[in-house]
Write a structure and sequence with these properties.
With about 475 residues, the chain is α/β, with parallel strands linked by helices. Helix content is about 25%, strand content about 35%. The strands form seven sheets. The chain has a six-stranded antiparallel β-sheet with strand order 19-20-21-28-23-26, with no helix packed on it. The protein has a five-stranded mixed β-barrel with strand order 6-9-7-8-11. Helix 3 crosses helix 6 and helix 3 crosses helix 7.
């Protein structure tokens, strides 16, 4: 049995300002309108139509991920393994393997798929997976290697050893991201492949290798699994106390660089690890001057630029080799040769205490979303959208009052000890300290304008008393 495992945990700091901690890289929409997580699900489901897909992600991302999956018709049998915090790929794979072993048997084959890849065409990917599964069933760890088309310093490399079959080799060694001169040497030698970060093995094989090569990880992972409660609906909530004791380590360091008998399938598919804005731009067809644009733009006497804007016109005059990424609350302008340095911007923002690295102006919540329209000393104005059948938590605020005006739909409101309906063009006032809840019991979205006033209007001034999403 083949169980695809989608690893969806990376923040994607090099894709700021679109990717942020609260809404990271897997949710980025590409030029074709699909997000990376949607592409991953469709790819996984195509190679394993008989079985479920297991997604390992953070608890905060599960609601948005469910929405993404539903919109592409994903199978309701799919399962989420929810991490309370980030611990890199090895702990995620160890716990996924323990889940697969418990539910499908130790000989079930796992296909590890990062959620930030673009792979084409599907037929070539399916053929590579078929070859990998045959090797995995014999007890091998299998990696997918991609034929390099340039000396890339942002990827790891695999040195191929002896041939096992058509486009299948023993792995001689793994090499971390090399400097340019070394990458050029690998290209010239011809026996090096890019390490795609996709793997295939049985649950038994990877657990045995983790126990042999990384017991400092596997032992606490076993404890975490033993302490984790049974699946609830489509989700397994990993035990937070024991999960916190897991070391933060990648599967490459924990196993791949130490294990023997690893095989590599040289893939015939085109692969793009969406790790920088240059990688995103490669997916867009250039114009005659090499400019690639998403959204409305006008380019005059400009060349080799990537411009992306969702909400407004961007005009470029006399610019060359630039990245221009425009969002409602942040603008990135960078030399294309420095695309990898965008991560440094995020580090600087963290140091200043800014929240622009973490949240967008529009923030997705389990019940819908809110957009901050304006904020100043002592006030904040939001547009809140509540999905049909959804409800915010029963909550109160210590430092602020709120005025709700319904501009679309009908609101079911708890305000203090009273519960009542507020319709379009009507409003209600919630004093500081009052318990309150906003619900939408209709079949259409509920839209309200919320005006907050008080000495402190930040998001952490929330005391949740009850919550259907388990956040109280």
């Amino acid at each position: 049995m083949l169980i695809p495992v989608i690893m969806s945990g990376g923040v994607g700091a090099r894709l700021w300002p679109v990717s942020r901690e609260a809404y990271p890289k897997p949710f980025i929409r590409l030029a074709d309108g699909q997000s990376l997580i949607q592409k991953s699900m469709l790819r996984a489901a195509a190679v394993a139509p008989a079985g479920p897909v297991l997604t390992v992600t953070n608890r905060e991302y599960v609601y948005a991920t469910r929405d993404e999956y539903r919109s592409v018709g994903a199978d309701e049998r799919n399962v989420f393994l929810l991490e309370p915090s980030a611990r890199n790929t090895a702990p995620a794979i160890a716990l996924a393997a323990l889940y697969v072993q418990a539910h499908y048997g130790a000989d079930a084959v796992m296909l590890i798929l990062p959620a930030d890849h673009v792979v084409e065409p599907p037929a070539a990917f399916k053929a590579a997976v078929s070859a990998a599964c045959a090797l995995a069933e014999s007890g091998r760890i299998v990696v997918f290697g991609v034929q390099p088309d340039r000396a890339e310093t942002g990827y790891g490399y695999i040195e191929c050893g002896g041939a096992i079959g058509d486009d299948v080799y023993d792995v001689a060694r793994f090499v971390e991201k090399p400097p340019l001169a070394q990458a050029e040497q690998y290209i010239a030698q011809g026996n090096y492949l890019w390490n795609s970060g996709m793997f295939c093995f049985t649950a038994r094989t990877i657990l045995e290798n983790l126990a042999r090569h990384a017991p400092q990880l596997q032992t606490p992972a076993d404890r975490c699994w033993a302490a984790t409660p049974p699946r609830s609906g489509d989700a397994v909530h990993l035990d937070a106390a024991t999960f916190a004791g897991l070391p933060e380590i990648s599967i490459d360091y924990a196993v791949m660089e130490k294990a023997a008998g690893i095989a590599v399938v040289r893939a015939a598919f085109a692969w793009n690890d969406i790790g920088s804005w240059n990688a995103v731009s490669d997916l867009v067809t250039p114009d005659a001057d090499g400019n690639r644009t998403v959204g409305e733009s006008v380019m005059v006497d400009s060349s080799d630029c990537y411009v992306q804007s969702a909400d407004r016109m961007v005009a470029g005059v006399g610019i060359h080799g630039l990245l221009v990424i425009d969002t409602p609350d942040a603008l990135l302008i960078a030399d294309r040769n420095d695309a990898q340095k965008v991560r440094t911007v995020v580090d600087r923002l963290k140091q200043t205490g800014s929240t622009v690295h973490k949240i967008h102006r529009t923030v997705v919540r389990p019940w819908g979303s809110y957009t901050t329209l304006e904020q100043g000393p002592g006030f904040k104005i939001k547009r809140i959208v509540v999905n049909p059948g959804a409800a915010l938590s029963l909550q109160l605020h210590r430092h602020r009052s709120e005025h709700w005006v319904v501009v679309g739909g009908t609101a079911q409101v708890v305000n203090g000890e009273k519960e009542f309906v507020v319709r379009t063009n009507e409003s209600t006032f919630i004093p500081a300290g009052h318990r309150h809840r906003l619900s939408n019991r209709d079949s259409e979205p509920l839209v309200i304008i919320e005006v907050q006033t008080g000495a402190y209007v930040e998001e952490d001034d929330i005391v949740r008393l009850e919550d259907v999403y388990g956040r109280s």
